[in-house]
Amino acid sequence: MARPPISNDIRTLRFLAGEMTQAELGERIGVTRQTVAAIEAGKYAPSLEVAFRISQVFGKPLEAVFRWEG
Length: 70
Fold this sequence. Notes:
By secondary structure, the chain is mainly alpha-helical. 54% of the residues lie in helices and 9% in strands. It has one domain: 434 Repressor (Amino-terminal Domain) (Orthogonal Bundle), CATH 1.10.260.40. The protein has helices spanning 10-16, 22-29, 33-40, 48-58, 62-65; strands spanning 6-8, 66-68. The protein has a two-stranded antiparallel sheet with strand order 1-2. Helix 2 packs across helix 3 (33-40). The radius of gyration is 11 Å and the shape is globular. This is Helix-turn-helix transcriptional regulator. Keywords: DNA-binding. InterPro entries: Cro/C1-type_HTH (IPR001387), Lambda_DNA-bd_dom_sf (IPR010982). Residues 20-65 form the HTH cro/C1-type domain.
């Protein structure tokens, strides 16, 4: 399966947010830790709703968290 053409800075943003864990982020956005790990690793493209929730948690615009590589 090909990787989605979306990359992200979630790992860096989690680190800058006091080393927030994947589980903590998942709890705040309503998904599992495994889902956060897959999104972070670029193995899974989040829904638009989840992408917006992630960017809200970090107080960043969507394009500061995710990049389209297509």
